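Troubleshooting entry. The earlier prediction with histidyl-adenosine monophosphate gave an output that would not parse, so I re-checked the input for stray whitespace and re-submitted. Clean input:
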Amino acid sequence: MPEYLPTAPAKGTRDFLPAEMSVRTQVFGHLYDVLELRGFLRYDGPILEPAEIYERKSGQEIADQQLYTLTTKGGERLALRPEMTPSVARMIAGNAKSLQFPVRWYSHPNCHRYERPQRGRVREHWQINADIFGSDSANCEIEIFELVHDMMSALGATPDMFQVRANDRNLLSSALTDIVGVTTEQLPQVFTLVDRWEKSDRTKLSDTATEIGLTDKQFEKLTEILSSGSALLDELPEQVKENSNLVKVLNSGAADLITFDPMIVRGLAYYTSTVFEVFDTSPENRRALFGGGRYSDLASLFTSQQIPGIGFGMGDVTLIDFLDTHGLTPKPRSEVDVVVIPVTEELTDASREVAGRLRKAGLRTSTPVELRKLGKELTRADKAGARAVVIVGQEDWDAGNVTVRGLATREQQTVALDGVVEAVNSSL
Ligand code: HAM
């Protein structure tokens, strides 16, 4: 017996067969429309980037555990992109002279992270990225939060189905240092601890806090501030709040787009102030749908010019889970609208001519490649989701006619060739 290779894709990666691809095309098509409507322009870039750009800016989790790296024959160390933000920062920095800021760009890359596959997490995922570059204004935050809501609404989601939880890392730093008494050296580790807060059990969190050097009392205080919601804002110094774009949003007419949540800190290292995540309100889906924030100096990897950015990545896995859970997943499209069936091989050219007319009128049309009995062709057309067939018989054809049959209505009519488009349209 020959030993066959597995037909399953590599662990943590997925095949998308046509039915699934059709659902995805519809879903992403709605999202591209929303982005284009707001003036976001689509870009793309290479899947391979120098490993260093992630090692220097994305943070330890990505650099140490999740990066797929390779060394080329020429000795370059490259990585499969785990995310798009460093790539887009590179493109913006490299083309800054010719760009008119603020720049609104979006992309839809596949990203690779070596993670343990589980619900909401795979090793290759697709991410819609949308970012605004070149402005420090809180209006960027508002625009990004509005965009999130527009994208969700374009998919049929209502506000009760999801929550946009936002924070500002500077507000959290202030709370941690001024209220909990965390030292500057401890701050990065405490941020990582906060990022794990909802994913770990309390004993583990408390053990990690002890390892970082926090006392039991400090751990209690930390627990208290993280669950205090917007009440925390009253305890923070005015000066810190004055400089916060997030506080500006919370004091504006756009406040209801978000929920202030001190627990949101995000795992990536480059965020400098605003951070946010979008969650499904259904407990079945615990992983974030979107993650994003503001990064004021990511472009500094590539240029001395200060180019702030703010944006998000929306993942396909959690999005499809969300749509399934809420009954919002669109149906796959059928293969074709119409099948044109010649009764004999001799009528193949005739049926190609009919099919050509139908396609010109925008009807998705196929013809059999290997002719079988009419009954079998009708069953096949039905299974392909066609709503009509056109039967081309010799006698009809000689008289300049064809027969149109509605597959749902089962009504059949013989029409002149010139009337075939109209007859098919009325039988759909
Ligand atoms: P992120 O939070 O790492 O952010 O990823 C964004 C979203 O991508 C997540 O909320 C999740 O939906 C999805 N995602 C991430 N990793 C996986 C995975 N292993 N499997 C399935 N889905 C995943 C970023 O990547 C930032 N670069 C986003 C950004 C753009 N920030 C500013 N601009």
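This one parsed fine. The mean pLDDT is 96.
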